[in-house]
Fold this sequence. Notes:
The chain is mainly alpha-helical. It folds into 2 domains: 2-89, no CATH class; 96-218, no CATH class. The chain is built from 12 helices and 2 strands, in the order H-H-H-H-H-H-H-H-H-H-E-H-H-E. The protein has helices at 2-6, 9-23, 28-34, 39-53, 62-89, 96-102, 107-113, 118-125, 136-146, 150-157, 182-188, 194-203; strands spanning 178-180, 215-218. A two-stranded antiparallel ribbon has the order 1-2. The chain starts with a helix and ends with a strand.
Amino acid sequence: MREKEQINLDDVIQAYMASATDSGEDTLEEWIGRYPQYERELREFAAYWKMFGRLPARDYSVEEEGGLVARAASVVQNILHEQREISSAAQPLSSLVDEAERQHMSLDQFAEAAEMSVPMIVMLDRRQVRYESIPRKAVESIAGALRTLVAAVDAYLKGAMQLAPAHYHSDEPPKAAGQYDFSYVVEIDPDLSDEQKEWWQALTPRPEAGGAQGRERSA
Length: 219
């Protein structure tokens, strides 16, 4: 079991290619059975390999053969790159804004990509929005903008409220703040149009009977 977890994708693809070549049969399902964690990548590579095999048979020059091999290697490298991105995305977030900056996105670009306003992003980054009031669409939009996992954004937003943004540094202690419902943040946002407010409000979960609305509590 440990060997299955430790073997990397490149080795699995190379082994699959060698197995299929030696046996003269497509051993894709066998290798997927051995390493189910790489099923999508194996199927993607196999699809390319099969298409390559359907090309009209002819003699290739050394340069052409080298180019075809390079294309196959490129497919493997692209898959490996995706794997590294997914692995990176699985790391816990320390700040939404810091993560956007790490990806060379300005705050304005981040907000636009997430279909939000800058004030909304800042409030969410500081975890000043009560998690239960945040619509799923907001979580998914942030994850999409940051090219990270929805679960990573979920975990971040569930964390303790920050009295100051994680990327902010000052010698003076931050003032205490409170948490707000997402709907209230949308309602008072000066950067959202009426149409945008209506759209976000329609997606926002309704508070439970007797539940807190607006500002929930002070820190």
